[in-house]
C-alpha cells in the first residue's frame, strides 16, 4: 500500500484520513463498552443476590492500593492529554517526553496491581480449591495483620456468617455459603481487574510504538492521528477503572 508522506493511498486528504481513523476508534470503543458491560451486568446481578458476601469481599481489598492506583491513572490521563496537545501544536520534542511519563505511570499501575494480586494469593483469596474467605480471621501472623486489623477481620467474618444464616441453617453451613458467595465476588474482581490490566498492557505496547515514532519527530500539527486515537483508547481504559474502583472497593466499605 503506497502513501505520500503520512497520507495513505486510499485517502484523498489527511483530514479525511483522520476523520476515518477517529470514527474507527470510536466504533471500536463502543464494542469495548459492550464487552465490559457484560461484566458490569454480571456484577450488578450477583451483588444484588449476595450483598453480604460481596460486602465482606470488598472489605478485604486494600483500599490504599486501590486509591493510589486511581490517582496514578488520573495522572496518566493528564500526561496522555499533554502528549496529544504537544503533537497538535508541533512540539515534537515534548511528545515522546509526555508519552514516556504516561508509560511510567501505566507501568506503576500494573506493578501495584501485581502486588495486590500477590496479597490475595497469600491470603487464600484466589478462586479455586484453596479459596478460604475466613483464612485471615484465623491466621493473624500469616496475613501480616495488626491486632486491630485482626479484630476487625474476625468481626467482619463473624457478621458475614450471621447475615448468611437462614432458618434451620447451622453456622458451618452459613460459613460454607459465605465462602462460596465470596468466591463469586473475587472471581468477578479478578475477571474485571484482569481484563482491565490486559487493556493496560496493550496500551503500554501502543505507547512504546508512539514513543519510538515520536523520537523521529513524526507527529506534528499536520499529522497526529495515532497520538489522538491511542489517547482516546488510554482515556477509555482510565474511565473503566473510575467505575471499577467504587464498585469493587467502596460499596459497603467499613472505614472506621
Summarize the structure.
By secondary structure, the chain is mainly α.
Strands of the widest sheet, in order across it, are 1-2
CATH homologous superfamily annotation: Cytochrome c oxidase, subunit III, four-helix bundle
Number of helices: 7
CATH fold node name: Four Helix Bundle (Hemerythrin (Met), subunit A)
The residue-averaged pLDDT reads 90
The string of secondary-structure elements, in order, is: EEHHHHHHH
Largest sheet data: 2 strands, antiparallel
- Helix/strand class: mainly alpha
CATH class designation: Mainly Alpha
Our Rg estimate from Cα atoms comes to: 23 Å
Shape: elongated
Number of domains: 1
| CATH-level-2 architecture | Up-down Bundle
SSE map:
Layout: E1 3-4, E2 7-8, H1 14-49, H2 51-59, H3 63-88, H4 94-122, H5 147-164, H6 171-214, H7 225-250
Antiparallel strand pairs: 1-2
Helix pairs in contact: 1-6, 1-7, 2-5, 2-6, 3-4, 3-7, 4-6, 5-6, 6-7
